[in-house]
Design goal:
By secondary structure, the protein is of the alpha/beta class. It is built from 8 helices and 8 strands. Strand 2, helix 2 and strand 3 form a beta-alpha-beta unit. The longest helix is centred in the last third of the chain and has 17 residues. It is globular. The relative contact order is 0.18. The chain binds D-xylitol-5-phosphate and zinc ion. The site of zinc ion has 6 residues, from strand 2.
Amino acid sequence: MTMPCFLAPSLLSANFGKLADEIRVVEEGGADVLHVDVMDGHFVPNISIGPLVVEAIRKVTRLPVDVHLMIEEPDRYLADFIAAGADRLSVHVEACTHLNRTLAEIRRLGAQPGVALNPSTPLSAIEEVLEEVFQVVLMSVNPGFGGQKFIPSSLKKIARLRWMLEQRQAQGAKEPLWIQVDGGINSETARQACQAGADILVAGHAIFRQPDYVQAMAQLRQP
Ligand code: DX5
Ligand code: ZN
């Protein structure tokens, strides 16, 4: 895979007291996507934000808004998040009993469906839904918090998924499918993840907990 990957700053690590300013800086600095983490205190231990904040984010950016639902029973909230302005909506395979139906519903409601996998969930869990998704989100930390350490075995998982997607493409798949890697991205793991075959890197602490966000993004893009 060629470098660099697309960059998706994760707003979870931004300063919520001045979110619009934080977004403007990363947007002007060349961010490709805005990643928004939604947590319910059940699927993950932490609680973050809901559709109201997504709506506020939507109003201050032209970037695609990529909402990562770390919640139980995500079907109950798909319409709300899409109405609030989510362009991409990812659900966790571990939280969906009828994953195919959930992904189809996201598409029907007008957003690009994504499916996210916890580090311990094997790729076989999504083999049957690849035709339905816009992106696969490979968690490289256990979801719930920013600033955790990248789990090294994620690199092999990225490479295996890249191989699966190449096979699929060779068999004439219609649409390309993006690999997003989420958690513990820094300049070193960014390089490793892109080399392993990632397309989109989510980064929270490595951008918003640095003194200069634009410079931090440039570092993440360095091969
Ligand atoms: C973790 C979230 C991530 C998080 C990444 O559960 O899904 O998007 O914000 O943060 P960093 O890049 O700091 O690991
Ligand atoms: Zn996330």
